[in-house]
Amino acid sequence: MSRPLSTGRNEAMIKRIQSASLKYPFSLVIIGDTAPFPKQEYDETFRALLGQMNMLRPQPLCMANLGDFAGPGAMDRHLHYLELVRDLSIPDICVIGNHDRDNPIGWEAFENVHGPCNYHFAVGNTLVVALNCHPRNGRRRDRSQPDDYVNGPTEVELAYLEDCLRSDTHPVRFVMMHQPPDFNRRFDGFNGLGFTHLEKEFLQLIRTFRVNIVCSAHVILYDYCEYEGTAFVTSAGGGYATDTVFSTPPHRGRFHHFVEITVQESGTISGRVIKLSDGAQSLPGFDFAVHQR
Questions:
Q1: Blockwise average pLDDT, block size 10, the chain, 293 residues
Q2: The CATH number of the domain where 135 resides is what?
Q3: Got the DSSP string for 164-226?
Q4: Count of the separate structural domains present in the chain
Q5: Residue 263 sits in which domain range?
């Protein structure tokens, strides 16, 4: 690439989101692991799901890609992602995933294109906090190698999260991150594990500041659970191969999909899982509702 992109694509997308005419109920869609590695079949699946997003009526306010969308993280992969979402009819924001920083310049590429790895914004009655779940861990040892990183937020990310939540008055609060908490090895056997690093501290913040819903990816499946009044939704079927056709409704399934989450003016949150090739129809048994905390 001859020159770096201008910084702050997420910021530009947030401005589009906030400038749109807001009507309740509004929705947003989450999707994850659309391209942890370069592969045509991943792109084809992601394109098909983007087409289904464009069919949704009313249109969602935005799409949140929850990470592993530009693996292994070189600048050309981010440019490729921008080409894939060029015809998406709604704004999209991006969260960094572990494979988005596999390349030695993965951190710089994400920040140059999308802006800071931790960011937040508000729309209507809702606060959204995007959190880096794979932060740097110390100094780079060798520029030919990727940075060290930890699985799970560090004290820096938790301080950012606490600052956002402590000063906020919105009744609905989302946290978006790539990797889910471990929850006592909930994801064993699904080609991906939740984080344990500062997990207790993270969950304490979620509980203390009454977060309604935490959205993540990383584990290649759809999963829903509740913990002390907060919903945890994992959506990582956006392109990467699903190893088996596995489904145990209403809480878990392994298939290509995205999730649409709807927010009512009252603060009630509901969601539906939309499977590849099922158009904009909800999957029976995979709807969920989260009441205002």
A1: 58 95 96 94 95 94 97 95 96 95 88 95 97 66 51 91 95 96 85 85 96 94 90 92 58 87 92 78 55 57
A2: 3.60.21.10
A3: HHHT---SEEEEE-SS-B-TTTTTTTSS---B-TTHHHHHHHHHHTT--EEEE-SSSSEEEEE
A4: 1
A5: 9-290
